[in-house]
Design a protein that fits this description.
By secondary structure, the chain is mostly helical. The chain has three domains: 318 residues, no CATH class; 174 residues; 142 residues, no CATH class. It is 76% helix and 0% strand. It has 28 helices and no strands. The longest helix has 38 residues. The chain is elongated. The N and C termini lie far apart (76 Å).
């Protein structure tokens, strides 16, 4: 019996097949052309090792335009720094191989440390600065007097590959990172605003899913970070005004913190009181926001500033309404910053510039551990080469350093990713062997070489963008040219090819062993440390040991929220958002105190927060409330009374909500 598939189903299968084949075919053509262009220029200039040009082109040639442009730029910077350091170390240790090797290990460890601390493509530049030195040392150790010439050749070869890969991708890929970022940012703004409206509409119902929704939104907001870098790489105007996009990401965190204050407070009130306070605040929101039909124009800074001002005027003499309105104002202010970022993407002329925020490191421990992994792993490869006098030992050292440095920042996935690279290298070695000894011997011209390379490289490149196969075939694509090692005078020595392959595989094997035997800081420990470091900072703030401004405190917590591992327990993100809001309230209280707008002493309250003594904190806040109530309206502290009471109540509700977090970290 013949079974005929429905026409609609057949059409869907054909469409999905086309959707998968077209990008793979395009990437295959794009990468092959980039590699061949780099090789052609390197051959024409008669460079010593043109395969480094082809390898660099393969690395830089990414399916995403923004990634290629940014990676190419920072690879240039890292390559130049590594070449300069190679020349400098050779000058310092001209005839002292042991001294040079030790200094080399220190340098690559320092670069690994920096590449873990830095974000995105700046981290890539630090990584390149490390293993470029080893690439140059692979030749210069035997001829230190020629190090300058060798460094210039290697830097030239790598730069040619970067230029070729960047040019081909720029000409064949229009880029859509700004559009994707705009869509994601718009969706997050809409969902965050909708979450605020929903919390007010249900008056913080104890049966709602507010906590779960916020945790998901925090995780998705943190995931915007690499998309911002891709968008910046594709649009020069975004690069110049990237601080607006950073402020947009932080604004979403601020908005979620404000929603959290609103929901926590409403849940602490009797049901009738919660509904009354929520209704008063909800009525002050724009109609388009309440109905979920807000547009980009509704999120302009001037409109949002008006909403914030109206909210802050609410609740005179009514603490419940005032605190609810204050949290909603924080949310509206954060949404305004996010909306400004969306305006930059859609209508740049209307976006308001923001001052760049400073750099802050979330946690130094993972960087220190990765530096140790590099030092020990590469050092072991160097010792093995020195002891065995392996002719291809320096090549193994080079690829051991590359393997460890590239995959160490992946933390728990590092050993698995390195193993995938080793498997991909074996695949490439088999394909290259077939091309080198069965196809190339009958070809003597560059077009023939190009055809042979495309025959092996194009299928690997196409398979490298298939998600399930990417860990193996991306490695096979990148290592295809180093294994083939095309030169102006091609050699077909089988033994030399085996030695070259063993050098690459041996270096990769050293890297895998180092990553397996020296485990990274676990995801659970990293997540816990981010919370512990933040609560430690909160204690220092409460005790007056640090005088951070609102923006400085926000930057510290936002950076740690972004650094939180993707598989971290959702409650840990809630802890950070809670600590963010408590810290902001403390800073506001300190600011009011400095300007003489309180009229009561708050040192006991701050000390109770610092020590995690919640029973004493409740008693201290009750005492301060009584003292505030006794202040006549004519006294200096009267105007700030409501603001102080609201801040204290927000602190108390936050720590009561997650008492195990604040009490458990009081030491």
């Amino acid at each position: 019996m013949l079974i005929v598939a429905p026409a609609g189903r057949t059409h869907d299968r054909f469409a999905s097949l086309v959707v998968g084949i077209v990008p793979a075919s395009l990437q295959a053509v794009r990468l092959s052309v980039a590699v061949l262009l780099a090789l052609y220029v390197a051959f024409h200039l008669e460079l010593e090792t043109p395969y480094w040009a082809g390898t660099s082109a393969a690395i830089v040639c990414q399916p995403i335009l923004g990634s290629t442009l940014r990676k190419g730029l920072f690879r240039m910077i890292g390559t130049a720094v590594g070449a300069i350091v190679a020349v400098a170390l050779t000058a310092i240790f001209p005839q002292q191989r042991s001294g040079f090797l030790f200094a080399m290990l220190l340098w690559v460890s320092a670069c690994s440390f920096l590449s873990t601390l830095l974000r995105n493509y700046a981290a890539y530049a630090a990584m390149l600065a490390g293993y470029t030195l080893i690439i140059i040392a692979g030749t210069s150790i035997a001829a230190p007097g020629q190090v300058l010439e060798i460094a210039l050749n290697r830097a030239s070869e790598i730069s040619i590959g970067i230029a070729a890969g960047t040019l081909v991708v720029a000409l064949t890929n229009p880029g859509d990172a700004p559009r994707r970022l705009a869509a994601m940012l718009s969706q997050l703004i809409a969902e965050t605003a909708g979450h605020l409206v929903e919390v007010l509409a249900v008056a913080g119902s104890r049966h709602g899913d507010g906590v779960k929704i916020r945790r998901a939104l925090v995780r998705r907001t943190a995931a915007l970070d690499p998309i911002i870098e891709q968008a910046v790489g594709e649009a020069p105007e975004l690069l110049q005004r990237r601080s607006i996009l950073r402020a947009a990401l932080n604004g979403l965190f601020e908005a979620l913190s404000g929603v959290r204050i609103v929901e926590t407070h409403l849940r602490s009130l009797p049901e009738a009181e919660a509904r009354r306070s929520a209704r008063i605040v909800l009525d002050q929101l724009p109609p388009s926001l309440r109905t979920g039909t807000q547009k980009q124009t509704d999120l302009r800074a001037d409109r949002s500033a008006s909403v914030v001002r109206n909210l802050l005027r609410l609740g005179a003499g009514d603490l419940s309404v005032y605190l609810t309105a204050r949290g909603a104002a924080d949310a509206a202010s954060g949404l305004a910053a996010a909306g400004n970022g969306l305006t930059l993407l859609n209508d740049p002329a209307r976006a308001r510039n923001r001052r760049p925020s400073g750099f802050f490191v979330a946690d130094y421990l993972p960087a220190l551990v990765n530096a140790f992994r590099v030092f020990l792993g590469v050092g072991t490869a160097v010792l093995f080469w020195v002891i065995t006098e392996w002719p291809n030992g320096l090549q193994a050292v080079t690829f051991a350093a590359i393997t460890i440095m590239v995959f160490s920042p992946m933390q728990e996935q590092s050993s698995r990713a390195a193993l995938g690279q080793a498997i991909g290298m074996v695949i490439a070695a088999v394909v290259v062997a077939i091309i080198k000894f069965s196809v190339l011997p009958g070809l003597e011209t560059f077009p023939g070489l190009a055809a042979a390379i495309s025959l092996g490289l194009a299928p690997l490149a196409a398979l490298s963008i298939v998600p399930a196969l990417a860990p193996f075939f991306m490695s096979a694509t990148v290592n295809f040219i180093p294994l083939l090692a095309p030169t102006n005078q091609t050699s077909y020595d089988t033994l030399a090819y085996l030695n070259n392959t063993l050098g690459l595989l041996g270096g990769c094997g050293f890297g895998v062993l180092a990553l397996v035997l020296i485990p990274p800081v676990s995801s659970r420990l990293r997540s816990q440390r981010l919370c512990d470091l933040t609560i430690r900072d909160l204690r220092r703030l409460a005790m007056g040991r640090r005088n951070w401004t609102l923006s400085q405190w926000q930057r510290r917590v936002y950076t740690r929220l972004t650094a939180m591992p993707g598989d971290a327990e959702p409650v840990l993100r809630s802890y950070l958002v809670s600590t963010l809001s408590v810290g902001l309230q403390l800073i506001r209280l300190q600011r009011l105190s400095r300007h003489g707008r309180i009229g009561v002493e708050l040192s006991d309250v701050q000390m109770s927060v610092a020590t995690g003594d919640l029973a004493k904190l409740r008693a201290d806040i009750k005492r301060v409330d009584e003292e505030l109530a006794a202040i006549p309206d004519t006294q200096p502290g009267a105007p700030g009374r409501m603001r102080v009471q609201a801040a204290l109540l927000a602190i108390l509700e936050a720590v009561d909500r997650q008492r195990e977090y604040y009490e458990g970290r009081s030491s």
